[in-house]
């Protein structure tokens, strides 16, 4: 059976169901000539509320956040399976991906350069949402007898709402979230990634003349074999891999973009001016300024995944005893994803002028921007896409496993069965488009923001107290810096072993003991 016939069969069977689901999840109201999805309003409203409720202050909290990432406040013996840095890398590897490369290009092709500014603003609002998710994920996680950890929105929905007298609602919302996310990750984090990596490899190796054309299953099989080995090892294995891949792929991509910007440095001021002017005029875009804003915000939400609860699952596994610390780390994820990486991609597209060519969009537009430097740059972009796609596949496999475990009462058999299905879907995703499956899983991916954000609203007082108490604790010295020898390295090894290997000498900067100041009036 051909790939086309498979897609057609799935379309005929599930098409009406997916159409109905999309109508509900992405329901939009007309605003002038534009349409505003209520889902976007739901997530942006949550970002605005939490930004003020938690008094987000990224600049003032930056020093504390970086110390937490470096492990200054956690012991190697603390409950958990990964370090704060590894949790950060796991979540970033799941969000920094094709949304930053293709999604930004799509936003610019639909909304013009001005969509970039709205992507940035939505990313800043997403910081508060991720902070809330990670803090609650840590607070209501379950540490099992073998030291493994289970956490995420399903746990703070169930146990958090139970603690405030709403056990039935919490149980329902937790199961709703877990079942939805278990399905969602198969499309957004698996099939779509494998399919796009394969498409890019085929494109740069000759298109229809490529030896890989029509043989996507080969790419899928390679991805599946490598991913399967990592996935079988669980969160520690995934974290070890992502904590190495994420810096490499980010540095490679950023260096390429910086070179593009350096070559076109004279165009940067004009590009920035164009971003601001078109953001507030919306010239040539359906719906004008509102249309531009909707496109930019929607792309940012889809890129950084703030509100979907993935940060709660990644950071629940961290070695930590203070939930707010993981929240402070997670807050930087939308900033890195939407404010830094997306903005750099947008600038590369704008300064090279490729966005004015209406024949290209998505990955093709970003590829055109890279090719303005040299044809070989498309190969570097392909490497970046492959790394982005692979790391996303790894991260989302963990989210799928944990939600499966929740739905099936921590059954190891169910979790392993899900791993097998997940790996098989990598090969399938690389072989056929399965557009209907991706549409269904995408709808489910954003449907779970409803129970997740409802739970966060219900737990808003608990969340605020956790964050504010931590700030005061840092100011008063009640939360001291952990002695160097008791910490973990950022990659999870015992710091004491590293010191012993260095002959007992401490790494420079290791004696940082000053408490991080926080203003008590913020409480």
Automatic annotation (TrEMBL):
Membrane topology: Multi-pass membrane protein
Transmembrane regions: 12-32, 38-56, 172-192, 212-233, 245-265, 271-295, 335-356, 376-399, 420-438, 444-463
Predominant subcellular localization, coarse grouping: membrane
Cellular compartment(s): Cell membrane
Keyword DNA-binding: no
Region (Disordered): 498-523
InterPro entries: Na/Ala_symport
Keywords recorded for this protein, A-Z: Cell membrane, Membrane, Symport, Transmembrane, Transmembrane helix, Transport
Compositional bias annotation for Basic and acidic residues: 511-523
Stored Pfam families: Na_Ala_symp
Domain of life: Bacteria
Record-stated family: Belongs to the alanine or glycine:cation symporter (AGCS) (TC 2.A.25) family.
NCBIfam families: agcS (TIGR00835)
PANTHER family for this protein: AGSS FAMILY TRANSPORTER, SODIUM-ALANINE, TRANSCRIPTIONAL REGULATOR, LRP FAMILY
Name this polypeptide is given: Alanine/glycine:cation symporter family protein
